[in-house]
Amino acid sequence: MNHDHVSEALHETRLVVNGVQHTVRVPARRLLADCLRHDLGLTGTHLGCEHGVCGACTVLVDGLPMRSCLLFAVTVDGAEITTTEGCRSADGGLGPVQRAFMECHGLQCGFCTPGFVTTVTAFIRDHPDPTEAEAREAIGGNLCRCTGYQNIVASVLRAAELVRAPEGETGP
Amino acid sequence: MKPPPFRYHRPSTVEEALAVLAEAGHDGKVLAGGQSLVPLLNMRLAAPGQLVDVNRLAELAYVRTGTEAVQVGALARHAEVEHDADAHRAVPLLRQALEDLAHPTIRNRGTVVGSLVHADPSGEMPAVLTLLGGVMELASVKGRRTVPAAEFFVGPLESALRPGELATAAVFPRPPARSGSAWREVARRRGDYALCGVGVLVTLDQDRRVQAARAACISVGPTPVLVDLAEAVGGRPHDAADWVAAGALVAAAVDPEDDIHATAAYRRHLAGVLTARAGHAAALQAAGSADRRGPGNPRGVPR
Amino acid sequence: MTTRMFGEPIARREDPRLVAGDGRFLDDLGAGALAAAFVRSPHAHARVVDVDAAAALDVDGLVAVYTYEDLDGRVAEPLPLLIPHPSLHAPRTAYPLANGVVRHVGEPVAMVVASDRYVAEDACDRIRVAYAPLPPVVGIDAAVRAEHAVHDDVPDNVAAHMVQEVGDARAAIAAAPQRLELHLQIERSASMPLEGKGVYARWDAADRSLRVYTSTQTSTSVRMALAAKLGVPVDRVEVVAPDVGGGFGVKIVHPWPEEVLVPWAAIRLGREVKWVEDRREHFVSSAHERGQRHTVRVGFDDDGRLLGLDVEFLHDNGAYTPYGIIVPIITSTQLLGPYKPGAYRVEFRSLYTNTVIVTPYRGAGRPQGVFAMERTMDAIAERLGRDRAEVREVNFIRPEEMPYDHGLIFQDGRPLVYDSGDYPASLAKLKKLVGWDELAAERAQARTEGRRVGIGLACYVEGTGVGPYEGAHVRVETNGKVVVATGLTTQGQGHETVFAQVAASELGVPVEDVAVVTGDTRRFKYAVGTFASRAAVMSGNAVALAARKVRAKALRIAGEALEVDPADLEVVDGIVRVRGVPDAEIPLATVAVLANPLRYAFDEEAKRATQFAVGGGTDVPPVRDGDEPGLEAAGWYSPIRSTFANGVHAAVVETDPETAEVKILRYCVVHDCGRLINPRIVEGQIHGGVAQGVGGALYERLVYDEHGQLLNASFMDFLMPYASEVPTVETDHLETPSPLNPLGIKGAGEAGVIPGAAVFAAAISDAEGLWIDRMPISPSELWELRRQTTPKGDG
User: Fold this and answer.
1) CATH (residue range A10-86)
2) Which of C114, C155, C327, C691 could form a disulfide with C365 if both were Cys (CB 3.0 to 4.6 A apart)?
3) What is the pTM of this model?
4) Is the ipTM of this complex over 0.85?
5) Residue C564 C-alpha, separation from nearest chain A C-alpha, in angstroms
6) Looking at residue A1, what is its pLDDT?
């Protein structure tokens, strides 16, 4: 594997992240996860494996959950990205999914949590009233080493409740 | 685990893409879904000098259900094909197999055509294309060609795609009338690569006897293994066919290998078991009953 | 009105920032730092002949390349042997960069520092290392055969040999009415936290001080190690554990090569340097655990009562022994579980292989010991045709026999004495929870339907709260907020919450007013670390003791201010008041001001305090002899010995007669860890442990080939369970308090995983009518086992 190591070309890339327009100049090989974390300073999205299995890096791309470790930033030029930071409520407090995780003890170390928050946000949007089995299936592509998933399943069901019937503000 | 550097092209039309691919030759790789390619790059197991990003080729983003076939463009994501109602009615096997392919998040980005070109011996899509007798449509600056499934999957992770070529579509023929299909797979974890997977297509005659039946298996050889089941079940009433015998045919036809997840003997055994299960279900579907495997039927519990 | 916070399942204080993406994990820090990456050995055993970095020098953004030759001072010495032991007669540790020889795939050979990680990896690719491969020793058999040696000067590959015995087990077995011999094996797995290791170092040249952030389970010990290695005075080194994405034991090892080299490079370069371990690196250069092979000989009577137990086992410790032989010592002692073994003899050899080092992973040798003991109990039951629960009950240590001295030495160097526990009650609860007595009928019914259902049961005892000590500091600030600091660390156990609950309960303040900091040597310097399920016991008690001192001081000062006897005072919701006398009160905030007799009134609180006169007048100094300014105190808890939690698990499984897939129908846990600070957090720990138990029993095995290549060094092939693989856990609790510490608590961190292999082996054995003696077991392996046992085949 040999490459003449010329300075890498930078590509101007526009991303709308959590509703905010950004323009970055990045090498083509810059992973979307690294672009979000280091070029845009949104460190909520995490890297657990860099080969698409653990799901900690999951973000929404044009509303669909995708692994940001398997996307180059340049390839999603122009897309709307939602990260866990973008799942807050409009007033900056915790969004319903985040609040549900907190209420149900759906996290311990918190490293995998961003990938669950985005995945669950999209899932509830598309399935507002899931069964427990559906909730477990929905989180079936994200690894967690701490919780044993039980409280995450509960968090999904609670999040669906909160989305259906918001209970007022929760501060950060 | 960061990818090595590469030159990046993002053509806006198919013509442009073909020109760039021709120029790049052996040094070029197509980037569509990337769900198979990018892990290899991140692990530095592959280092193509040039990546041709085809995600802007809107003309290739389609799923078309016609009277003869379902045509899937290069940019149709697994999830789009899986959820396409017309495609599902025309070729139920697509959704049946796609539900076992990785996880929904991967399916949101990965493409069916990309999966086919990747030619993983454990890939569901190559078996589906093989079972249905489908074809791949390939294009290059030299022109277009069509390659049938039987010739497309050459070896493990090796397809008949030539350097400079772009696979533009996959064509999945509609099964004949009075047909049913089923997909059964055993994987270590839900969504993992199959230890063995089998798709079965059954066609009944007017008397609801088995007119034709065949199986395509994955993870039991370098490419999908297609087996004609007529010897075991041909001419039998749909609900009295010896699917276990059909399974035995398939078990005898496959030549799997040992690896850290399963022995060759176990894979061979699974090929037989899964054929029997899939065959039974496919015959039922052919006869008009719904496929019995739905949500709530727990994995691993005998059906 | 403040609720007693101790025992309340309150939501976690750390969650709001973690769920919103505002956590500060290692790679979230150090935005401007240079990136380090490593060239690692592709060979399991080789001499390093030459390292040629010439081609890397062209890489745009490269800052430095280092090999062993560049290391100086004590950095050039081997890494420390953290826990020596007389039985560890041939300890060996690695150099931070290979010194002429590599002994496992993944061992670091060169370090690259560059502008970012992408570029650093590019440079690593271009460094040409010439190796002369040597024959690798892989697996216990090869280590024992010793045709080749991992270390030239340890020709038999034996690092340690240890025997512990009480009574004459061999004689007792020989004389027993019944005898059995079992051969058992557990394979390698690993902690595998979702966040790998990471180190970020900042050298302040003007100040000559070093700050290191590291994803560790012991910032205080890393600090000592770095000060020693780098020749920087200890008081000029600060180590901070940021938010840590899981540890499960692997992050207790220290200092990792990278923990030494990254600060070393930062000092040399005068630049901030950061290294973030990627997943492949974690597989081949952190630590593994679990691989052991046991021979158990047992003598028992016709009731199943143990008369003698003789265990010999081989432990694969990998290429080096930085953590000593803690894991096999724990296996040796915890194997006994809740039982009286009669006479007991345990002997182990810890063996070198050319593989990744073996250090504690949640459970830390207990899963292997429990597997051995519980399979033995099941075998005895089968031999005698008796109920498996009854056989266990016959052997239990009874509650009235507590404290129970086994006559052995535990991993803390102190006598193995169980302090409390009611094993019959735990088992009875479990039997009720799972419906043990009804299950036999259900299983029989299933069999008539052609279904294979099985039930397994496993008991364990877990020594927790290992010393030597932990400490905590509690301070009430002048605004009434309480700040708590303890030196050990956090990797998801909710310490910011549970220690706040303890402090709030002891002080009488709202829990929202308590902030907790862990793992930061700037805030608390003396600590041991988070491991062995010790944090709640150790720091929980230290926080309580510190808080009690603060409360006592507050009452004394408030008593003087209000001119009442401190014994008449109580603290409720942060107000000190006279019991039963409304309006006779003073906020704790004001007491805090009064505790620091300043000349100057900085703020409103200080001004308000001037209305109270304290200090006893002009013939006594404002700060009395032996007293200190401030409403604060440090507390220390140092246990006489470990405390012992216990539990019983049951699993109901169904195996597919055709595919041999295993489905978990039910999983039940009865758990006794004494008093619970936060029951929801404890339950969460159990769930997580059970998931790792499922992983270890059915999915996770690290596979080395004969060349010492790790074949499954990725999440694609090392199978950690997803939600689809993990059952819903049904839990019930018992609380037999520990008499050894003021709060009566025992540890909970590892409980969920300890009996995993045992309980699933038992359940699958029961479903299949086959003897399972090695774990993990996959469907393929179960199917092959069926074929071997039933010549007809796959049934």
Assistant:
1) 3.10.20.30
2) C327
3) 0.96
4) yes
5) 41
6) 33
